[in-house]
Amino acid sequence: MYSARDITKRYGGVQALAGATFEVDPGEVHALLGANGAGKSTLVKILAGGERPTSGTLRLDGAPTAFKSVEDAARRGVALVSQELNLFPALDGLHNLFLMREPVSGHVAISRRGMRERAQRVVRQLGLAFDLERPVGELALGEQQLVEIARALLGDPRILILDEPTSALSADETARLLGVIRSLREHGVGIVFVSHFLEDVFEVADAVTILRGGRVVVARRPVGELTVAAAVDGMLGEAAAAVRSGASPPQVERTIDRRDEAALRLADVSIRRKVRGVTLDAHPGEIVGLAGLEGSGVQAILRMLFGVERPMGGRVVLPGGGPCPRGIAEAIRAGVAFVPADRKQTGLHLEKPIAENISLVSSCALRRDGLVIRNGPMAQRAETWRDRLRVAMASPWAPVGALSGGNQQKVLFAKWLETGPSLMLLDDPTRGVDVGAKAEMQGVIRSIAEGGTVVLYTSSDLQEMAALCDRVLVFYQGDVMGELGRDELSEHGLLQAVTTGELV
Ligand SMILES: Nc1ncnc2c1ncn2[C@@H]1O[C@H](COP(=O)(O)OP(=O)(O)OP(=O)(O)O)[C@@H](O)[C@H]1O
Ligand SMILES: [Mg+2]
Question: Of the bound ligands, which one is closest to the alpha carbon of residue 16?
Answer without folding.
Answer: 1
